[in-house]
């Protein structure tokens, strides 16, 4: 896609995801215009981005070939949408997860940009056919769903609208690859995309095991962090089963197919994630990590620090 030869990317929304995307785009040497409809919010976002970039530089995890100072020169804040979109070849929307809001944003954005400009949404599970329903030219629309925080966790799910042309999907894949992300293509839209469907399946069974008295909250988390998560940090479920039998995947299925089917058939219904079950699990997790902002913020910083180390090791 020739449009990807441009050098300006506009980020709509200056919250956590918007700031993270801005950092990723800056690392690739792109000029980034960050916009927020709330006056002053985009300017505040630049201060936070500056702080975060200096922190990752100190941790020797700064991405790209440019210094923090050189990256920040490429960043500008805008309260005026038209100015924020001027000259951009790629628009990354990062407003909060509300269908009506996202539809309104893209309807307004389309009125300020040319036909070749790619319109991309950061939605985590809203379908492209719904998000872009008010856009006239839907062939250039795509979902680029990052994993929080995208600066350290590099997966990006690319989900096309039914009318999205291959050039846009391929071009966005090339852009994300150029930025050092790990893009994956979904061949068609599906509720929850791929990552959340897998994640929700894990959450649901973990929830059932806790509420049925099989295991504690702390121990089910250890099943992932000290068990499955150790290898899933490097290989996925298909490669896992391929490597877990002497003769590969077919051998694994011969050995374990019936056991897998038996266990899977014993899974219970989808949990409600509410009521006394939710209250009990919340009480248990808060006993480990209190839900006040100090404890949550400290734990998130700990998580991000370890993600930085893991990303560095994988690189």
From TrEMBL:
Main location: cytoplasm
InterPro entries: 3-OHacyl-CoA_DH, 3-OHacyl-CoA_DH_CS, 3-OHacyl-CoA_DH_NAD-bd, 3HC_DH_C, 6-PGluconate_DH-like_C_sf, 6PGD_dom2, NAD(P)-bd_dom_sf
Site note Important for catalytic activity, residues: 145
Organism of derivation: Synaphobranchus kaupii (Kaup's arrowtooth eel)
Cellular component terms (Gene Ontology): cytoplasm
GO terms assigned for molecular function: L-gulonate 3-dehydrogenase activity; NAD+ binding
GO biological process: fatty acid metabolic process
Domain annotation 3-hydroxyacyl-CoA dehydrogenase NAD binding: ranges: 9-188
EC number(s) per entry: 1.1.1.45
Keyword line: Cytoplasm, NAD, Oxidoreductase, Phosphoprotein
PANTHER family listed in its UniProt record: 3-HYDROXYACYL-COA DEHYDROGENASE FAMILY PROTEIN (PTHR48075), LAMBDA-CRYSTALLIN HOMOLOG (PTHR48075:SF1)
UniProt protein name: L-gulonate 3-dehydrogenase
Cellular compartments annotated: Cytoplasm
Family the entry assigns: Belongs to the 3-hydroxyacyl-CoA dehydrogenase family.
EC category: oxidoreductase
Start and end residues of each 3-hydroxyacyl-CoA dehydrogenase C-terminal domain: 192-258
Subunit-level organization: Homodimer.
Transmembrane feature ranges: none
């Amino acid at each position: 896609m020739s449009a990807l030869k441009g050098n300006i990317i506009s980020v709509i929304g200056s919250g956590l995801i918007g700031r993270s995307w801005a950092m990723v785009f800056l690392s690739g040497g792109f000029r980034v215009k960050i916009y927020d409809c709330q006056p002053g919010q985009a300017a505040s976002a630049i201060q936070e981005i500056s702080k975060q970039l200096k922190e990752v530089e100190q941790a020797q995890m700064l991405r790209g070939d440019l210094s923090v100072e050189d990256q920040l020169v490429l960043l500008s804040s805008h309260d005026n949408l038209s100015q924020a979109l001027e000259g951009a070849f790629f628009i990354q929307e990062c407003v909060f997860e509300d269908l009506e809001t996202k539809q309104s944003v893209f309807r307004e954005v389309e009125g300020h940009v040319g036909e070749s400009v790619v319109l991309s949404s950061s939605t985590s599970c809203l379908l492209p056919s719904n998000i872009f329903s008010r856009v006239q030219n839907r062939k250039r629309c795509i979902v680029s769903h990052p994993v929080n925080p995208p600066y350290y966790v590099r997966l990006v799910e690319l989900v096309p609208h039914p009318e999205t042309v291959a050039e846009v999907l391929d071009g966005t894949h090339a852009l994300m690859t150029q930025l050092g992300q790990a893009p994956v293509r979904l061949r068609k839209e599906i509720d929850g995309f791929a990552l959340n469907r897998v994640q929700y399946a894990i959450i649901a069974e973990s929830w059932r095991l806790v509420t049925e008295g099989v295991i504690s909250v702390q121990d089910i988390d250890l099943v992932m962090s000290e068990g499955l998560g150790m290898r899933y940090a490097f290989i996925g479920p298909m490669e896992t089963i391929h490597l877990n039998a002497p003769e590969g995947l077919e051998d694994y299925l011969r050995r374990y197919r019936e056991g897998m089917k038996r266990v899977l058939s014993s899974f219970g219904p989808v949990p409600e994630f509410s009521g006394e079950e939710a209250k009990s699990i919340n009480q248990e997790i808060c006993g480990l990590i209190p839900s006040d902002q100090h404890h949550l913020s400290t734990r998130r910083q700990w998580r991000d620090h370890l993600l930085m180390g893991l990303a560095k090791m994988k690189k």
